[in-house]
Amino acid sequence: MILVVGGAGYIGSHMLKVLREAGETHLVFDNFEQGHEPALQGSPAHRGDLRNPEDLQKVFEEHPDIDVVMHFAAYIAVGESVKEPGRYFKNNTVAVLGLMDAMRAAGVNKLVFSSTAAIFGEPQYVPIDENHPKNPTSPYGDSKLMVEKMLDAYDVAHDFKSVCLRYFNACGADPDAQIGEDHDPETHLIPVAILAAMGKRPPLTVFGTDYETNDGTCVRDYIHVLDLAQAHLLAVRHLRNQGDSRRYNLGNGQGFTVNEVIRAVERTTGKEVPHDAGPRRPGDPAKLIASAEKIRSEWNWRPSYPNLDDIVAHAWHWHRTHPNGFAGETLGAVGVETP
Predict the structure, then answer these.
(1) Were both Cys, which of 16, 34, 178, 232 would link to 43 (CB 3.0–4.6 Å)?
(2) End-to-end CA distance of the chain
(3) According to the model, what pLDDT value does residue 243 have?
(4) How far is CA 125 from its chain centroid?
């Protein structure tokens, strides 16, 4: 059984869809602080907090068939991490250490960890490969890199195997629009642009128009959330086949400017995206583009949705059919166990 920590969140809930379609037995572990019960869509869940050792002990005791764990339970707002670093280190680093120790106590030694491109900091070259220097510029990036280092040490000391998948810009939604992206507050560009076009939020701000890019705005690598999920499924199968620990970057290998994303949203929605120009944000690199050649060559992973218009169309389909997000939706889990 796969334990999906943070399975009620954006990426976690799309992982659940992939697991259901693959016939993989799984259980969600979530405190629903930021996740949504309707996003579970039939997957069983255990309500618990990663920062509470008793909750972790209970889920492993009640489900001795757990053999692999996936972690999707991080706080992800870079700006917030600068203002509240302690909150990020406690949740993103210390709590994961507690999870690793709970896993070892239960005889489970396989973890698929959601890492991030933020571990690299200011890029020295693009596209960014796995060997790029790692110098995070935020507590968020630090909190994730610390976990990667902990996992390396646990592998040496305890034969604890892990796959760390370093996301670039996760985006898109289930093409069937059963689940999608519903953060509060929303900070990701594609949903922010869609919500602005729908008149559900103020005009978005384009932070910096004088970068050395083709239109002066930042370039980012956008990777569909279901493509991320498929890479996680490959990671589970690799670990179950007694594979060694791996580290992979996940992206499309192509970049789009902020203005190009705005135009894609306007093409897809048929609506104008109101936006204003603002100053650069400190620490925003001009370009962040991934090299995913390593996972392509070693696992034959390929994005199924590399086209920006397809990514935006899936996100738009979700927001159009769920104008209030998951609010008011019925419970989507088979049942939520409460400690």
Answers:
(1) 16
(2) 19
(3) 98
(4) 23
Find the helix or strand (DSSP H, E) in which 46 lies: strand 45-47
Helix (H) or strand (E) holding 190: helix 189-197
279-311 per-position pLDDT tens digit = 998 778 899 999 999 999 999 999 999 999 999
- Catalogue the active-site residues: 140
Neighbouring C-beta atoms of residue 14, cutoff 10 Å: 29
| Helix (H) and strand (E) counts in the chain | 11, 15
Residue with tokens 């594609």, as numbered in its chain? 190
Q: Is 198 exposed, middle or buried (0-12, 13-18, 19+ CB in 10 A)?
A: middle
What the block records as the tokens of 92 is 């993103």
3-state DSSP: the chain helix, strand, coil percent, rounded to 5?
A: 40, 15, 45
Grouping H, G, I as helix, E, B as strand and the rest as coil, residue 238 is: helix
As a whole number of angstroms, the distance between CA 80 and CA 88 comes to 9
127 cis-preceded (ω within 30 degrees of 0): yes
Q: Each residue of 243-282: pLDDT tens digit?
A: 999 999 999 999 999 999 999 999 999 999 999 999 998 7
- CB-CB contact of 181 with 191 (8 Å): yes
